[in-house]
Known about the structure:
Blueprint: H1 2-8, H2 11-37, H3 45-71, H4 79-108, H5 114-141
Helix pairs in contact: 2-3, 4-5
Amino acid sequence: MxxxxxxxxxxxxxxxxxxxxxxxxxxxxxxxGLYNIAGLYLWGDTGYWISSAANYVVGSVVSYxxxxxxxxxxxxxxxxxxGRFIINITVCWILAYGxxxxxxxxxxxxxxxxxxxxxxxxxCGMILFVCLNYVGQRFFAFKQ
Length: 144
């Protein structure tokens, strides 16, 4: 178990965390910039979804390039690596949030408001996504 943990907590893991911080800052900067500074809040729900989608799209592009070149130092070219990355992000998102939501509702339903349960679920989904995404990118998307 200790050996397995050492294999995961190597320099690649810490580069992944650094890229995640940068990716989060860039993506949320785009989202809140579009929503508040560009005035998409005036568009109501449409502005909300455009801003949050831009966060996901820009964040994924930043994540792809930084993780491919800096974190995992992958030299592969072509569409296969991009396809694996997209599959990984999609599967991790579906699994993470698909597990977090019903589990949070099962455990916390009736104890807290729907809003608190929803926020807790999203937080758990984020944590699960990071864990699954690291494994997926390291051993699937950018495997060498």
